[in-house]
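User: I'm putting together a teaching handout on how multi-component assemblies are represented. Below are the sequence lines for each component of a complex, exactly as they appear in our records. Could you produce the 3D structure of the whole assembly as structure tokens, so the students can see both representations side by side? Please keep the chain order the same as the input.
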Amino acid sequence: MLDERRRILNMLAEGKISASDADGLLAAMADTETPPPVTEVKPAASKSPKYLRVQVEEHDGDRSHVNIRIPLTLIRAGVRLTALLPAGLHDQINKALKESGVDFDISKVKRENLEELVEHLAELTVDVDGGNGDKVRIYCE
Amino acid sequence: MKLPPALARFDYRTHRFWLPIFLLWPLMLLLFALIFFAGAISLALTQKSSVQDLDRFLSGLYAMICASRGTQIDVDASDRCISLTLR
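Assistant: Of course. Below is the structure of the complete assembly, with chains in the same order as your input.
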């Protein structure tokens, strides 16, 4: 391709073709040039988190630090177990939740929803920064 | 095959203890058998749920115990440091 371009330029320099002809030829060459092959870049497979980490830092007089690591499989297993609750208990749970200010009907939650909830827990990050240096951080790793 | 936690590492200040939880596995098996029989008897009397529900509950409970592997709790205060890890 470079040879052809050079030949056109040589022809222009020798006066065999006019500048407009050379321009037309170069433009025609550019149209026929095939674009370089595009290599498909696949995003690296996201590493699924395995643990839910809860970190609490307290600066109440003495500095204290609480670090809890819970496997997500444990949460998943616990959620599956709660799905086996008998229907009679749902009313009691709903009542207790309502008394705590949470207006939520637990009987409408299905097993698939719970699985989805745990899946999305992986994207959760909670950062609470208290004014006096207390910090709470919840995330998945 | 899923197995319950076999060891627990317990750190208190500079001391480290390894607790062999696998020694409690036979006891856990016995407990599960007791729950199953008690559940089966109550099912026979009340007939409010099926044996499948009981089976699902016990397998779910076992899965939850197995999934507790890897749990780690660290409490680091100024005068004491406690850590518990299930393996």
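A couple of points students might notice: Residues 51-140 of chain A form one domain. The interface with chain B takes residues 50-51, 62-71, 73-74, 76-78, 80-81, 84, 86 of chain A (CB under 8 Å).
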